[in-house]
Every structure is written in structure tokens, then in C-alpha cells.
């Protein structure tokens, strides 16, 4: 099947069969994101989805796990999703679970009965872009929810049996707020208890609306060293037994992953070693833009507690 746009799925879905059911993201207003800005959201015709499932079956495929793309497939109506799920189980009878991205608002638009319907039809994991534990930052980056809305909707989906997985971004709160963000984000997760957290350290691309905020001085980026310090504090505070954590700091080629609490000390050591290695070096900023100059090239005042 020809895929339109950039393939985007959580790392833990790398072995899933990715079934495109839409193009783009129905929300598409987050200021840090460039994945779907060039696309107009639309659902793919059900005939096209069925043809892809038939192609996979006829090629001998029968995966146990399916991931629905693109940006937030959970926005679709229940009737449409249930139709897709029925086709999946018809053509891929070995399928044990169907997972997808969602937003907090997507969940709010479904009743308790509809959430349970989707669970009974095979939906298991929803990946939510939580990004931060700070309400003012959620508002600034134009997420579709505040913290209280996230608490409410995550509780509803979990009551229906759906598993909560989270995306966050170290550095999204900006310079000087890393430790504050880590502490508030840990507080959020210790209450909502996700199964997995994927942390992609903020990468500021010139095509992202947030880049304009950076140029205008409304957003001051943290350095990658600061982001590792923030990541360390978050891991230190997380108290969710069995939580799988995967943190990426691609500009420094640092990745920290493991299961809490048993891997906590090993994960902290990975970050401690990386922090020590980069302490005193020229700060690295994950910014891709035209020629620009930071007002200050100093590391911010965040320090390891």
C-alpha cells in the first residue's frame, strides 16, 4: 500500500502491522509538531483499508498485533472504527490486539459504552501525547487538553479496560523549567499509572510554529544537557511499578530505557555518565533552522538535585 506522509508510530509498535486508515492528524495544531502540517486530514475509504487487509492476508500475513495510522485514528466514529476492527478480525484472524494514537479530546467524545465497545472489539492500547505536566505549557503549545481533562479521560479509558501509554518531551517547558516540569510530570504519571512512557527530547524544527515563538523570544530552548538533567529527575521520581520507560536524546546519541523500579539505578547511571561527559562542553541545542544565534550559549541554571 502506498503510504502518504511520514510514517509515525511508537517504538513499541515496531513489530506491529501498521494499517493506514487515515492521512494526517485531525487536530494538527500542536505548535511543536511538523509531522502532519503539510497534509489535509482525511479518512481513507473503507474499500482501500479492506483491500490492504486482503493483500496482507493473500501474501501470507497474519500478525498478532495491528497499529492503526495515521496521527490519531481514535478520532474516528465508533461505527467506522468497529467496521475496521471487524475487517481486521476477518482477514487477520490471529490478531489479538489493535492499538492506535489518540488525544484526550478523542476520548472525551466517546461515551463509556462506546469505549467498552471498542475494547470488546479488540482495541487495547491508546498512545496519548501528554507532553508535559504543566498546564501553562500545555496551553502555550496548543495541546487539546489541560491536566484535569487528561486525568478525567484517562480514568474513563482505563475503566473500560484500555491501556494508557504516554508520549512526553523533555525540554518542552523551555530553559530554566526542566526540574519543575520533571516533578509535575512525575506527579501526573504517578497518579495515572501508564504502562509505558516514551520521551522524545524536544527537537525544534524551523517548520514548527514553536520555532516562530523561539525567534520572537517567546520560547527559550533548554540545552540538551538540561534535557538530560530533566529526564534524570523524572526517572528518579516515577513511582509506577512495572512502568516501561524509553527516553531519546538523539542530538547527543543518548538513549535511556528500562523497567521501573528494577532498572532505575542502571538508567540513572546512563544519564549521570552522559551528563558528566557533556558538562563543561559547548552546549548543544536541538534546533534545525536558518542561521541563528542564541542570546546566551550558557547552560541554564537547572542543576541535579
What keywords describe this structure?
305 residues; globular; alpha/beta; 36% helix; 10 helices; disordered C terminus; 8-stranded mixed sheet; 12 strands
Q: Helices and strands in order, then pairings?
A:
Elements: E1 17-20, E2 22-23, E3 42-43, H1 46-58, E4 65-69, H2 78-91, E5 97-102, H3 104-108, H4 112-120, E6 123-131, H5 135-140, H6 147-159, E7 163-168, H7 178-192, E8 196-200, E9 204-205, H8 209-215, H9 224-237, E10 244-249, E11 254-259, H10 264-278, E12 287-288
Parallel strand pairs: 1-4, 4-5, 5-6, 6-7, 7-8, 8-10, 9-12
Antiparallel strand pairs: 2-3, 10-11
Helix pairs in contact: 1-2, 7-9, 9-10
Arithmetic mean pLDDT: 92
Secondary structure class reads alpha/beta
Beta strand %: 15-25%
The total of helices stands at 10
Strand order of the largest sheet: 1-4-5-6-7-8-10-11
Helix content: 25-40%
Quote the distance from N terminus to C terminus: 50 Å
Radius of gyration: 20 Å
Biggest sheet, open or closed, and with what strands and sense?
8 strands, mixed
Q: Give the oligomeric state.
A: single chain
Low-confidence stretches: 291-305
Order of helices and strands: EEEHEHEHHEHHEHEEHHEEHE
Amino acid at each position: 500500500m502506498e503510504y502518504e506522509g511520514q510514517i509515525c508510530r511508537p517504538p513499541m509498535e515496531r513489530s506491529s502491522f501498521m494499517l493506514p486508515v487515515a492521512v494526517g492528524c485531525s487536530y494538527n495544531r500542536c505548535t511543536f509538531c511538523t509531522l502532519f502540517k503539510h497534509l489535509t486530514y482525511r479518512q481513507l475509504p473503507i474499500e482501500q483499508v479492506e483491500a490492504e487487509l486482503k493483500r496482507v492476508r493473500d501474501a501470507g500475513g497474519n500478525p498478532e498485533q495491528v497499529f492503526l495510522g495515521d496521527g490519531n485514528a481514535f478520532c474516528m466514529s465508533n461505527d467506522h472504527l468497529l467496521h475496521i476492527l471487524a475487517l481486521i478480525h476477518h482477514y487477520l484472524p490471529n490478531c489479538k490486539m489493535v492499538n492506535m494514537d489518540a488525544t484526550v479530546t478523542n476520548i472525551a467524545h466517546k461515551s463509556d459504552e462506546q469505549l467498552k465497545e471498542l475494547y470488546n472489539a479488540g482495541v487495547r492500547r491508546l498512545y496519548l501525547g501528554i507532553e508535559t505536566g504543566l498546564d501553562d505549557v500545555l496551553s502555550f503549545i496548543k495541546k487539546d487538553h489541560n491536566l484535569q481533562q487528561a486525568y478525567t479521560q484517562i480514568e474513563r479509558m482505563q475503566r473500560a479496560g484500555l491501556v494508557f501509554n504516554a508520549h512526553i518531551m523533555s525540554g518542552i517547558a523551555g530553559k530554566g523549567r526542566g526540574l519543575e516540569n520533571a516533578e509535575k510530570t512525575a506527579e501526573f504519571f504517578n497518579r495515572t499509572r501508564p504502562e509505558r512512557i516514551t520521551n522524545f527530547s524536544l527537537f525544534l524544527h524551523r517548520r514548527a510554529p514553536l520555532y516562530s515563538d523561539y525567534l520572537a523570544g517567546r520560547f527559550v530552548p533548554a540545552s540538551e544537557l538540561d534535557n538530560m538533567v530533566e529526564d534524570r529527575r523524572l526517572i528518579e521520581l516515577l513511582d509506577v511499578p512495572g512502568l516501561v520507560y524509553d527516553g531519546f536524546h538523539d542530538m547527543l546519541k543518548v538513549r535511556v530505557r528500562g523497567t521501573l523500579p528494577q532498572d532505575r539505578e542502571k538508567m540513572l547511571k546512563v544519564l549521570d555518565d552522559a551528563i558528566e561527559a557533556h558538562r563543561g562542553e559547548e552546549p548543544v541545542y536541538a534546533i534545525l533552522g536558518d542561521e541563528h544565534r542564541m542570546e546566551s550559549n550558557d547552560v541554564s541554571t537547572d542543576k541535579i538535585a
